[in-house]
Amino acid sequence: MADRTGGIPHQSSSGAPPAKAGPVRHYGVPLTGPAHAPEWATGSMGFGDNQHRGAFGEEFIRMLATAANLDVTQKERDRVGIDWQLGYTGRRGTRRFPAIEAQVKCTSSPDIHGDHIRYPLKAKNYNELAGPDYEMPRFLFLVLAPVNPFAWSHATEDRLRLSHAAYWLCLHDQEPLPAAEGAKVSTGTRTVYVPRANLLTVDSLHELFAEDYRDLVAS
Prior knowledge:
single chain, 3-stranded antiparallel beta sheet, alpha+beta
């Protein structure tokens, strides 16, 4: 298989993290916010809680995908572990209008080790991404957001800045987790290793539509 996208990230079946190390960026450190929260924030239900953070992570992905001129569709009901479907708007290779799907997670306390980020996925979420039995490629999109919700965005007349970054991971080359004897579904968590080289940008989003990933699924 031609390597046109930086390679499929492989997760060690032994659970050991990648050996390569590199500089660590200290994401998750609270950034300075307003000395006193404005009235709208103190009266805003759920401001800065996990649901708010999750919504920010999803909109972070929508902004990137829109800037990449991709069609973005949100799943109304998350029953199959997918938050967004991204569609390519033009002809690429021999297949017209291909699409990919993404499960989005957002964290303010990432476990960063050199060149990768360790992230614990629930077994159910892991199994909704692992293996080849899908119509179209699926990816995990991991968004890192500041602890302080006032630092999530900064708008001026020149720009809108969203903090901090998002990364992708493909698990189609991994086996789904088996359920315990007598159980219908797998339980617990599985730690995945998201390469920091897999930074989500306008360009890298387009690379996820390459045939490399479509060859991994039984479409």
